[in-house]
């Protein structure tokens, strides 16, 4: 593929990423949810009795920004060849693509596991100025709890394989003079499909629940089926896109360091790169 295709893909990825972030932030601004919070254990993206909150949308925007930043990093395998020609240059780019994680604490955190571990429980430290919505008497349906559980492990795969694992793998792609992955990954058909699925999932997820609230647009059952389809297609596209590109030892080390040193993603990722470089 020529330089024209590389430029087209770069421009498309950048524009799509920016549009997705803009959609999320404008929705967070325009939806009347700033002073609404769900009861502990309910997320507005799946629960019929809850709403998508302002915090959930802002959290989405953080990850959309990460996705866009990573896309630019992956494209650098094509157009930052002088920088990538040295270990120092590749590690510098790895540090740059991981650096936004240092600001993670500035964004809301919505735990997936809270949705099946604390259904209906009250939080004594909750902000009393917020209006609480959701089901406070009954547990969520088993189907919804199962989807939350799957989403949790999807996130683990996304964070440590698609993000940290892949980024580390690209930084070490020429270790010992051997190309572990040939060709620019973001130009491949598999990655193009994954990028579309990923951006679609992030943007449409909270709009689907909004359509349920309208009652006359889609039903809760239809929304759950569409969410399940999004989850399945995104997972399949992700697995296909990174197969052969990710060094699985990097993903495994990233997971282990995360569980042992939570909230230190920049340090953990650079440590992962160092450990894989030395021992793998």
State the main characteristics.
2 strands, 10 helices, 2% strand, two-stranded parallel sheet, mainly alpha, 280 residues, single chain, membrane
Overview of the structural elements:
The protein is mainly α. It has one domain (3-26, 59-107, 140-279). It has 10 helices and 2 strands; from the N terminus they run αβααααβααααα. The chain has helices spanning 3-30, 54-79, 81-84, 87-98, 114-117, 142-171, 189-213, 220-242, 248-260, 265-279; strands at residues 36-38, 131-133. Strands 1-2 form a two-stranded parallel ribbon. The longest helix has 30 residues, at 142-171. 35% of the residues are buried. The chain crosses the membrane at residues 224-246.
């Amino acid at each position: 593929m020529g330089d024209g295709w590389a430029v087209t893909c770069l421009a498309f990825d950048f524009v799509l990423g920016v549009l997705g972030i803009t959609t999320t932030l404008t929705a967070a601004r325009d939806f009347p949810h700033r002073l609404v919070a769900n009861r502990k254990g309910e997320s507005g993206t799946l629960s019929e009795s809850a709403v998508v909150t302002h915090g959930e949308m802002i959290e989405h925007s953080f990850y959309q920004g990460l996705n866009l930043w990573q896309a630019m990093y992956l494209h650098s395998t094509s157009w930052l060849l002088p920088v990538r020609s040295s270990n120092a240059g590749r590690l510098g780019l790895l540090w740059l693509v991981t650096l936004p994680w240092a600001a993670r604490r500035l964004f809301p955190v919505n735990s997936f596991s809270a949705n099946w571990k604390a259904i209906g429980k009250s939080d004594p430290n909750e902000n009393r100025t917020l209006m609480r919505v959701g089901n406070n008497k009954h547990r969520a349906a088993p189907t919804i709890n199962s989807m939350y559980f799957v989403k949790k492990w999807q996130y683990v795969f996304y964070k440590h394989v698609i993000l940290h694992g892949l980024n580390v793998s690209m930084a070490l792609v020429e270790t010992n003079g051997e190309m572990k992955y040939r060709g620019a990954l973001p130009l491949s058909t598999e990655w193009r499909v994954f990028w579309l699925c990923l951006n679609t999932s992030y943007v449409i997820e909270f709009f689907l629940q909004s359509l349920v609230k309208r009652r006359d647009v889609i039903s809760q059952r239809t929304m759950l089926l569409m969410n399940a389809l999004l989850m399945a297609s995104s997972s399949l596209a992700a697995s296909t896109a990174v197969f052969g590109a990710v060094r699985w030892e990097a993903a495994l080390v990233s997971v282990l360091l995360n569980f042992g040193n939570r909230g230190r993603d920049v340090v953990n990722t650079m440590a992962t790169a160092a450990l894989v470089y030395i021992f793998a």
